[in-house]
From TrEMBL:
Keywords: Aminoacyl-tRNA synthetase, ATP-binding, Cytoplasm, Ligase, Nucleotide-binding. The keyword Disulfide bond does not apply. InterPro entries: Aa-tRNA-synt_II, aa-tRNA-synth_II/BPL/LPL, Asp-tRNA_synthase_2, NA-bd_OB-fold. It comes from Naegleria gruberi (Amoeba). This is Aspartyl-tRNA synthetase.
């Protein structure tokens, strides 16, 4: 009867799936297995991430999501030896159905943290996988393989990549939780917009039914329209597009942003206060994520806990004075200068907010400072990298009209009907996660990264 206990079987339709096994058993997920279930017979469908055959004995490491358990089979006669031979020929990463008894492990190896294992009674291969270019379990330093950015549907199975995107999902959830707790309303804005600037060098422009339009680089315009329409506090998780021609470790042409906008009662620092509370809340929550140890194990840089004794605020003028005082050769505003400024405070905090930029390339919607120097804006640095930007928006019709770089007739029109001061912020999700985890490249945190250059033989999935 052994031949009926193993073999290749295709996935059946839902009404037939229950009859694959000859034993009446319960369908269980790996993460649901616990010591109280010892002795029970269960059925699992999972990936055979590793198969090892040693004489009459064979082991199969079963993995589903980020959870795994070891299954074993010991042949006691010639017929069962044929079953061992079959199991040993199952390609790694194939999908299998296993029926087995939950038992306590006699010895614990490094392959799995579980103290339990399955004593296999039946095994069926439901979908055979082709041989991989690399073994997922053998990748210690995740920079070793360029294939990580090509066959994402394979590399995501590695616990390192899997936990990165689980953590990214958690960040999004915590962002929404915080926003709802502060009475923000979730909105959804369009990504195709009219050209908003004379300088479209950083925008993807195209013809849209005879009109020149672009992919939005930010959702702040429609956030302002929503605020002026009476939704005092709004937020959104959305996409943003920027035409970067270079290919650095921090640039993507399509990114995910955490955005919010709000009315201001007296000063734009109200926006900064929300940012500080938000960052503290998200960081505290994700610092307890159980998969951080796995990420640290495979991260070439390790993983040091983010220091946030206090989120420090500086003005651009103060930051520039620091560079001058330390005889820096870097001109403030550049990539290296920002990293240098952050390094002065690295023993105290990893998060800086630098405000009141007077740089010529500020957004055309940003409110000039009442002092006549700089703008009511700010940037957010985590470990020396800019991960977010915010500002007070111009709410005066005449002042906005004089911003010759802007083409926002809808906003100008909205300001004619009474507009309260408002501001907002946008945080790059991928960069935030990269800096939190101390990863070497933002592509690790983008599920299907879009960049101007792609790796050799890489497909745009």
């Amino acid at each position: 009867m052994t031949q009926h206990l193993y073999g290749d079987k295709p996935f059946s339709s839902s009404d037939e799936l229950q009859s694959i096994s000859s034993i009446r058993i319960n369908d269980i997920r790996i993460e649901e297995i616990n010591k109280s279930m010892e002795g029970e017979t269960i059925r699992l469908i999972a990936r055979a991430s590793r198969v090892v055959k040693k004489g009459k004995l064979c082991f199969v490491r079963l993995r589903r999501n980020s959870h795994s358990i070891q299954a074993c089979f010991l042949a006691k006669n010639d017929q069962e030896r044929e079953m061992v031979k079959y199991i040993g020929g199952i390609p790694h990463e194939s999908i299998v159905e296993v029926v087995g008894i939950i038992v306590m492990r006699k010895s614990k190896s490094n392959e799995t943290v579980s103290e339990l294992e399955l004593e296999m009674k039946e095994i069926y291969c439901l979908s055979r996988a082709q041989k991989l270019d690399y073994e997922l379990d053998e990748l210690e330093d995740m920079r070793q393989s360029r294939s990580l950015h090509t066959k994402r549907y394979v590399s995501l199975r590695h616990s390192f990549m899997h936990h990165i995107f689980k953590l990214q999902s958690l960040i999004g959830r915590k962002f929404c939780e915080y926003m709802y707790s502060k009475d923000f309303t979730e909105i959804h804005t369009p990504h195709i917009v009219k050209n908003q600037s004379d300088n479209n060098i950083s925008s993807f422009t195209f013809d849209y039914f005879g009109n020149s339009v672009e992919l939005t680089t930010s959702s702040h315009l429609h956030q302002q329209l929503a605020i002026h329409g009476g939704l005092d506090r709004v937020f959104e998780i959305s996409c943003a597009f920027e035409k970067h021609h270079g290919c650095t470790h921090v640039h993507l042409n399509e990114k995910t942003t955490l955005n919010f906008g709000m009315t201001i009662a007296s000063h734009y620092h109200e926006v900064i206060s929300v940012v500080k509370e938000l960052l503290n809340y998200i960081i505290d929550e994700i610092s307890e994520y159980e998969g951080l140890e796995v990420i640290a194990k495979h991260n070439s840089r390790g993983l040091e806990k983010l220091k946030k004794t206090e989120i420090l605020e500086l003005t651009f003028k103060e930051a520039d004075a620091l560079l001058i005082a330390n005889c820096s050769e870097n001109e403030f505003g550049g990539f290296m200068a920002l990293r240098e400024v952050a390094s002065y405070f690295k023993d105290y905090t990893d998060i800086l907010i630098i405000q009141n930029s007077a740089h010529e390339e500020v957004g055309c919607f940003e409110m000039p400072s009442s002092t006549g120097k700089g703008f009511n804006n700010f940037i957010i640095l985590i470990r020396g990298i800019v991960v977010g930007r915010g500002c007070q928006y111009i709410h005066d019709e005449e002042l906005l009209k004089h911003q010759v770089r802007c083409h926002a007739p809808d906003l100008v029109s909205a300001l004619k009907y009474g507009a309260q001061p408002c501001g907002g912020c946008s945080i790059d999700l991928e960069l935030f996660l990269m800096q939190f985890l101390q990863l070497s490249n933002v592509r690790f945190t983008s599920l299907f990264p879009r960049a101007p250059t792609i790796y050799e033989n890489e497909q745009l999935l």
